[in-house]
Amino acid sequence: MSSRCRRIATPFTIAALSASLMLALSPAFAAPPQIVITETQAFDASSVPAYTGDYADVYAQLDKQREADVAQLQRWVRQPSISAQNKGIAQMAELLRDDLSKLGFRDTALVPTSGHPGVYGYYDAGAAHTLVVYMMYDVQPIEPTGWKVDAFAGSLIDEPKLGKVLMARGATNQKGPQRAFLNALDAVIKTRGKPPVNLIVLAEGEEELGSPHYPEVVAKYQEQLRKADGVFFPMNTQNRDGQASMFLGVKGIVYMELEAKGNPTTGGPQRNEVHGSLAAKLDSPSWRLVQALATLTTPDGEIAVPGYRDAIRAPNAEEQRLFNGIVRGAEGEQAKQLEGLGAARWKNGRNVREAAAAELFDTTLNIDGLVAGYTGEGVKTILPHRAVAKVDSRLVPNQTPDQALALIRKQLDAKGFQDIEIRKLSGYPPAQTSVDAPLTRAALGVYRKYGQTPPVAPRIGGSAPYYVFTQTLGLPMIAGGLGHGNGAHAPNEYMVIEPEAGSKIAGLVQVERFYVDLLYSLSDALKQSGK
Amino acid sequence: MSSRCRRIATPFTIAALSASLMLALSPAFAAPPQIVITETQAFDASSVPAYTGDYADVYAQLDKQREADVAQLQRWVRQPSISAQNKGIAQMAELLRDDLSKLGFRDTALVPTSGHPGVYGYYDAGAAHTLVVYMMYDVQPIEPTGWKVDAFAGSLIDEPKLGKVLMARGATNQKGPQRAFLNALDAVIKTRGKPPVNLIVLAEGEEELGSPHYPEVVAKYQEQLRKADGVFFPMNTQNRDGQASMFLGVKGIVYMELEAKGNPTTGGPQRNEVHGSLAAKLDSPSWRLVQALATLTTPDGEIAVPGYRDAIRAPNAEEQRLFNGIVRGAEGEQAKQLEGLGAARWKNGRNVREAAAAELFDTTLNIDGLVAGYTGEGVKTILPHRAVAKVDSRLVPNQTPDQALALIRKQLDAKGFQDIEIRKLSGYPPAQTSVDAPLTRAALGVYRKYGQTPPVAPRIGGSAPYYVFTQTLGLPMIAGGLGHGNGAHAPNEYMVIEPEAGSKIAGLVQVERFYVDLLYSLSDALKQSGK
């Protein structure tokens, strides 16, 4: 996942909430601004009946092809595909396209975009319904230090308390689960001749860059996608304890740069930095940026842009029920959660429920980066002619990127900072699927079959451009799977292949079984929901 | 000069004021806070009689050794001595020491410090008085682009409207004028057997780093320096039009880093950056730094630290007379000054006199650099665990570094920002010599002899640790010389060697003649002032 939604792939989002299923409801919730939880019911995935499908012949095939399947994952991670550095991108795109062709996908193609190509393939199962499988074939760059194996060697190593893992860039983010899904599909085709549903694989090679051109890929296959009934994204969702989790949406985002620079009206050097002593008689773009930024938050760092939260709708009954389900027992988990984040408290002293509510239902205004002048070691005295802040805001339902930008612009103007330039670098709305959608319930049923009762979040705090499916195409979208990995954007990324005895983590064969069942279960759900 | 006092060597400080000698006084000066000019008299260097000494034999010797003297400058600039990169530093220190020995200095030595070595030499002329010559043997790093010659080739090239120049790193900052001074001394010794005054050369190799260890060099030779009567620093002071200028002091400085980081009390991630979406529930050190900084200035960027200017004494009568002398005709010059700085106006709409008064008499609070999180191109969403501002304040008489720091600390504490760490990176007080000091008048007399009527600034806006002479040792200190150069901290640094016909810029021989006269003139002044 991109840096925007890293938390999907790292365990501290849903996973951090996932062990919180024990205590009583908290109807008297002391909420951050505008987040009021009045619903007293809590969603509990155990209310969904376990999926009863059984595909013994397919499972046997999975056992049979076990070694080959591990090799498939290795083959994928051995092909570098670093989108930020355009390293191996073309090769990986071709590899994916060719793998789809071998599986029986037709019309397979690289999809040219303004950036890295997308990959398309259509599996015609002669079915009435069609499932889109979203994939990303790119990976994060390699950290210069910290790797204990070659990041592209496809190493299988024994990790204490985990078992045998595939340790490589892309192992869990996202090649491992994606190829495991294709392995499952392969076994289905080998035993049953075809999958129970038509499939469209629509992959991108720029997820780690924030999916800037994925809408182009979607637009190109618009006609084919209009016939689809839902979208699925394969993902390892088990945490280290083996607990799986589910989320039903993502926040939107608007990412901007705010720049102050030397200006004929507000003064300051326009051409280049000048000597620092000139602060006596020249205006400073750096101070100007600081003062402008300071009008956007309170001294405590809370959003102070008038009306910024006005558009946000209150959590609806479903979201409140999901929230209640998630935060049961949250108090008992908060020390662990904070430790995982390296923080000593929640924002401005919020309690754990307020923090969780903010993460799910509130917008943000975050400084991603600040830069002006001399940033090296020691002493250099200059008055910089420009200063830049990188700022992002996560958007919840009813917020839009342009509306958010307009409110920030308006506040800066009102405070006299008309000269501060705002450059929008990216922006898209949130996306969400209902817990009551047949697709969601089908997935939950499969989790139930495998002994999981996943906490279900209405959304995560991170962002991804899933609106292209949920909003542009009006399709329900779910993501999930068994399996555990970590280190998505860090050294020593891994996915567990053979868990240690006694572990609740699924091994590769179990991960693939889950996908087999899910294919049939989702297919049933699509039939049931009709179109 | 270091980045702190770059403006000594570039033409926009005094030089920018130097053509302002035409108009009436402005007794009704509308001043920035606390700067009130009540004095109506203006200092005019033409009131100082021209020096009448004549050293025809020495001048003849200078003519004779002209080519050798140019070669000496070339030899110096061909030896790299980049203090920031420790490139050629040891070699240049040895070269200087050996040159001093060859001239007849005794006890010459490299002076070990915690950083780059100093260089010491004593010329015993058997005189009653002793002049310290401050030198710096280090230079700025080479800019990666923009040089039209090899920066260490010692190239002599013809520049339009200037004439033949030595174009090299260090040509004007400060090897050119320093070696020209030693050439002059050489000619004096060759013709007269010895200089008229004992000399102590005390050089440093860290001027471009802010002279962090020069006090160690001074301390080591404290006893010898106690016998000295004054200090001189050779410098090209002519601007492109040939107008020389003089300054009598420097501001002090305190340079600090302000850092906000994840903190048990104020929150935020303590270990490393976290995902940007966590801004919903974690505190942000970056916002905290922004809000803390915002308490130090007004929205317009004026200092808002209570009491920050309280210690500053009003400009005394001498300073006011000097100021009045400098700003005569300032209005006519301001467009040129602003253009030189690349700015459209003075700070917050000050007029040119207010701006000049602020530069001379007011303190500053300047952001030299800001850095947090991701500062590269494009989109990366993180919540940085630390944010740093590099801030410097220029100090005028009666301010001290520690007092300035304490006031900033107090303001941050009062506004609830106790957690912002302030790290002092350097600090020293201002330095100043009187226009009525015999040394100053002697130098002015020599300028007068060469047809110059330099504007005399009580100080410059930049800083240098001259307090070690003026305050620690109680010595008057002056800097000056004829000669023109530019590009001190920029590509294509040069010093004019043979000016174009009709130019008022002094050629190398004339620069050396000035130093010959100055040696005798200063010697006379030291005798006159007694000790």
Largest interface: A-B, 95 and 95 residues
Distance between the termini of chain A: 31 Å
Q: Cα-atom Rg of chain A, whole angstroms?
A: 24 Å
- Approximately how much helix is present in the residues of chain A? 25-40%
- How many domains of chain A? 2
If classified by CATH, what would the architecture of the largest domain in chain A be? 3-Layer(aba) Sandwich
Structural description of this entry:
Chains A, B: InterPro entries: Cyt/Met_Dipeptidase, Peptidase_M20, Peptidase_M20_dimer. Chains A, B: Residues 272-416 form the Peptidase M20 dimerisation domain. Chains A, B: This is M20/M25/M40 family metallo-hydrolase. The structure is a homodimer of 531-residue chains. Chain A is of the alpha+beta class. Chain A has two domains: 3-7 and 44-250 and 430-529, 3-Layer(aba) Sandwich (Aminopeptidase), CATH 3.40.630; 252-312 and 362-427, 2-Layer Sandwich (Alpha-Beta Plaits), CATH 3.30.70.360. Helix content of chain A is 32%, strand content 19%. Chain A is built from 16 helices and 20 strands. The first copy, chain A, has helices spanning 6-9, 14-17, 56-64, 66-78, 89-103, 175-192, 214-220, 222-226, 285-294, 317-327, 330-341, 352-361, 401-414, 438-449, 467-472, 508-529, and strands at residues 106-111, 118-123, 130-136, 155-159, 163-167, 198-204, 230-234, 246-247, 249-250, 252-261, 274-275, 366-373, 382-383, 386-395, 421-428, 431-432, 456-457, 477-480, 485-486, 494-499. In chain A, strands 1-2-6-3-7-18 form a six-stranded mixed β-sheet, with helices on both faces. In chain A, strands 4-5-20-19 form a four-stranded antiparallel β-sheet, covered by helices on one side. In chain A, strands 12-14-10-15 form a four-stranded antiparallel β-sheet. In chain A, helix 4 (66-78) runs antiparallel to helix 6 (175-192) and helix 6 packs across helix 16 (508-529). The two termini of chain A are 31 Å apart. Residues 1-31 of chain A have low confidence and may be disordered. At the A-B interface, strand 11, helix 9, helix 12, strand 12 and strand 13 of A face strand 11, helix 9, helix 12, strand 12 and strand 13 of B.
